[in-house]
Design brief:
single chain; 4 helices
Length: 121
């Protein structure tokens, strides 16, 4: 639970200086922040659209192509089960791919902006 009470005597924990509102606005309008947003959007938007299209395809096939979805591939395994499980695999692959992308491209840019804001405050 956070309180506004002063820290106990001898407590030397210091938090980073808080940037001003003007600093946040200045950073938001900077080319560097714009590049960070562009990098995020160029990854997230296409992947989100692709996944939604893939999901809607599965739903539409389930509703309107029952014969195809019921086609047995081997044993009691049919097309619907394989495509349904592929939805889960796709979700985990996208999460893994995004974490790699964020670690390589987004986090360094965001950390640079954050460090500069804390140093200026």
């Amino acid at each position: 639970m956070a309180t506004d009470a002063p820290p106990p005597p001898g407590d030397t924990v210091t938090s980073p200086a808080q940037p001003t509102t003007e600093s946040f606005v200045e950073v938001q309008e900077s080319a560097e922040f714009g590049e960070l947003r562009r990098t995020y959007r160029s990854f997230a938007f296409p992947l989100t659209i692709a996944f939604i299209a893939w999901y809607l395809l599965y739903v539409l096939l389930s509703n309107y192509a029952g014969g195809f979805m019921g086609t047995k591939l081997f044993g009691n395994i049919n097309v619907a089960l394989v495509l349904g499980l592929a939805q889960f695999v796709t979700t985990f692959l996208i999460a893994w791919f995004y974490s790699r992308h964020a670690a390589e491209k987004l986090d360094p840019k965001a950390e640079a902006i954050k460090s500069r804001m804390e140093a200026d405050a």
